[in-house]
Specification:
about 475 residues; 20 strands; binds nicotinamide-adenine-dinucleotide; about 30% helix
Length: about 475
């Protein structure tokens, strides 16, 4: 333990597969480096799932997490099927871990990669988007998943990305979204990036559509510095980026919330090599370096990171990165641990030397700004209907139900307009969306919608859902259908 440093309580879980071996290695290195830690161990993962706890984490383990608010976690094996819930998603959501931070660095020439100059960090929004898990079976044939993007959630991740860039000497933040298609949800994500970016004139800003952005990460990763993106895109692009570095075994990752941090390796529990003594502990070691910077033990973090870089440079490599001619000595988990410990106090000669500040508590974010109030006017309603006949039959059934100032404007199927002036070639499923709007500028009353639905109900129409249509300061809060 470092002289005079008060030990920070942390929660540790050794996980499954190679988890216990790489965690023991990491704890040995932390101890040898003088990390001031007061460790509480909890059990998570396969055994807990199999004991009947569906999310893989017992109530007493939560107590420890609530107390320490710092979690160093080894990978776990997620059982297939059986209604089990992802432990990672449960922990992230329950503890409000809104940012996932994943540095992806090439270690050329020691680790084989086509992109020697790659050194980027992906900051992924961790709570929203399609990971809300709000899904519906809308009809026999049509399933739907709801994508949620909120202004406060987006502001927080943008603030985090820019503050992270500043604190870590990064020069550029690239936002990736698909706002050319999802104009409202991803449109907000992009807009808030631009708005928050104005507070950071010292940082270069850039936006890319996620598909071309992912392609560029795969082929020109050296273009990027910090990438900020939504939950699903971030999930995909961070695996692409990790792969491009040359080894998924080397990456650490953190999940950050207000006053909470979870730190881990990006790889899984590798059951194929469990118990063989050959697992590379590096991913978790680098995860623990992120943890040490989070709790303000920057000196120890620097010491471990520099010793780890020096070990790599000295050609001491585990089997999955070992290459004749480049590597000098093939080691297992124990050998790697010993080599890192021997180099504590040394610095790398080729890679830049790491120097982390001793500032605790992670980044302090400015408060989320108050939303500007916009005048909301309800102008219509979208009603979903199950229907297995033709569009013309549907129109014939609906029109008699439309009597007051709430006219049928459009019918779409799978997002494509099929009435009026539909294209006979458009394939129609059994789930239809009917858009009713006011014929003047009046605010639509709930009673009008209910009356319309009652008439449709009496006509034997089968609802799936209804969504109110509003404008905000005159701007529609809904999209038009394809072809409308
Ligand atoms: P994996 O990352 O465990 O393994 C992929 C390949 O990489 C395997 O060949 C493995 O031997 C190798 N590998 C991984 N880590 C290594 C290391 N440290 N040293 C040397 N080689 C290493 O991915 P997978 O096989 O798809 O998943 C196995 C299990 O892990 C699954 O149950 C999955 O659900 C779980 N998983 C857990 C987490 C987590 O807890 N954070 C993350 C991903 C996967």
């Amino acid at each position: 333990m470092t002289q005079g440093t008060k030990a920070t309580p942390i929660t540790v879980a050794k996980g499954d597969g190679i988890g216990p071996a790489i965690m023991d290695s990491t704890l040995e290195i932390l101890d040898a480096a003088g990390a001031a830690l007061d460790i509480e161990e909890i059990e998570i993962g396969e055994a807990v799932y199999k004991s009947g706890i569906k999310n893989g984490i017992a109530p007493e383990a939560w107590e420890s997490l609530e107390r320490t608010r710092v979690f160093l976690k080894a990978p776990i094996t997620t059982p297939q099927g059986g209604g089990f819930k992802s432990l990672n998603v449960t922990v992230r959501k329950s503890l409000g871990l809104f940012a996932n931070v994943r540095p992806c660095v090439a270690y050329h020439p020691f680790v084989k990669t086509n992109h020697p100059d790659m050194d980027l960090v992906i900051i992924r929004e961790n709570e929203e988007d399609l990971y809300g898990g709000i899904e519906y079976r809308q009809s026999q044939d049509v399933m739907a998943s709801l994508k949620i993007i909120s202004r406060p959630g987006t502001e927080r991740i943008m603030r985090y990305a820019f503050e992270y860039a500043r604190a870590n000497g990064r020069k550029k933040v690239t936002c990736m979204s698909k706002d050319n298609i999802m104009k409202i949800s991803d449109g907000l994500f992009h807009r808030v990036f631009d708005e928050i970016g104005e507070f950071y004139p010292d940082i270069e800003k850039d936006h890319m559509i996620i598909d071309i952005g992912t392609a560029k990460v795969a082929n020109h990763p050296e273009m990027f510095d910090v990438i900020v993106t939504t939950n699903l895109y971030g999930d995909i692009i961070s695996d692409v980026a990790a792969e491009v570095t040359g080894s998924v075994g080397l990456g650490g990752s953190s999940n950050i919330g207000e006053n909470f941090g979870m730190f881990e390796a990006i790889h899984g529990s590798a059951p194929d090599i469990a118990g063989k003594g050959i697992a590379n502990p590096s991913g978790l070691v680098l995860g623990s370096v992120m943890m040490l910077t989070h709790i303000g033990q920057g000196d120890v973090a620097s010491k471990i990171h520099n010793a780890w870089l020096r070990t790599l440079e000295d050609g001491i490599h585990t089997g999955e990165i070992f290459r004749e001619g480049i590597s000098k000595e093939k080691v297992g988990t124990e050998g790697m641990t010993k080599a890192i410990i021997e180099r504590l106090g040394q610095v790398p000669e080729k890679f830049p030397v790491k120097k982390y500040p001793n500032i605790a508590g992670g980044l302090t974010l400015p408060p989320v700004r108050e939303s500007k109030w916009e005048a909301k006017v309800r102008v219509g309603v979208d009603i979903g209907i199950n229907w297995d006949k033709t569009t013309d039959d549907l129109v014939a059934a609906i029109l008699p139900c439309v009597t007051d100032n709430l006219g049928l404007q459009m019918i779409s199927n799978r997002g494509t307009k099929v009435w009026p002036d539909g294209n006979a070639a458009t394939f129609c499923s059994d789930n239809w969306r009917l858009r009713f709007v006011t014929s003047n500028d009046d605010h639509i009353k709930t009673s009008q919608v209910v009356a319309l639905m009652n008439r449709m109900n009496e006509a034997g129409l089968n609802f799936t859902k209804s969504v109110m249509l509003n404008t905000y300061d005159g701007v529609p809060g809904y999209t038009v259908a394809q072809g409308e």
